[in-house]
Please model this.
Amino acid sequence: MEILNGKEFAQEMRNNVKTAVGKLKNKPTLACIIVEGDKASEIYVASKQRACAECGINSKVIKLPNDISQIQLEKEIEKLNKSKEITAILLQLPLPKQLNEERAINKISPEKDADCLTFHNFGKMFAGHSDFAPCTAYGIIKLLEKHNVEIEGKHAVVVGRSNLVGRSVAALLEHENATVTICHSRTQNLKKFTKDADILVVAIGKPKFITADYVKKGAVVVDVGINRVDGKIYGDVDFENVAPKCSKITPVPGGVGPLTVASLMQNTCLLFDEQNKK
Model:
């Protein structure tokens, strides 16, 4: 059994970005919008700021009050769209209940959409017409490639159907010629599908939900979950009991999480390159 160490690979990705940015006369700038009130979001944004500093990317954080209206939020996004200083925009999710995430995301200019979640960019990625992809999904594919996981012809099962992870990683796996099954909260007899998976990607937000009896021997398991329980962090997979059955598995923490931030740095540079081709 091999541990897929995302932390080490993420460092390699950041080093590559740092080298590329170091050759630029003008530096990219990533703007993160955060609506205050979610402690986990504050931690994630702080980690993105640190990664920017390490890679030589300028960063700007726009903190907005928890009671902000949809119109006010969209006005803030429009300001960043129009700013020549800003290369890439990331809207930190989740948003408070009074706000429509889909509407807000699609106010971001596709040319500055750091997480590839606008309908324009997501549609191009889904159709296979772009190398640009949502950060977590991109990081997962690159981690599998790094560890020589054969994707073509394999049965990949993705548990979770969010655009941020489930649907996007399913599309990228299909682009690599896997046969893909997407499962979700309404899937009947989930175990039947997961036990048939050569590659199992889990992103459902339920700590230790996937136990050993959900996984076939020799499978590659990618755990996207980050669940905080009594001050500790757990994945969606019961790592201790599932790992012995796997050929390869990601840990939590130290697996997919660091790759998401490293991929964000790479996406920011891709947007910068595209903007400066014009």
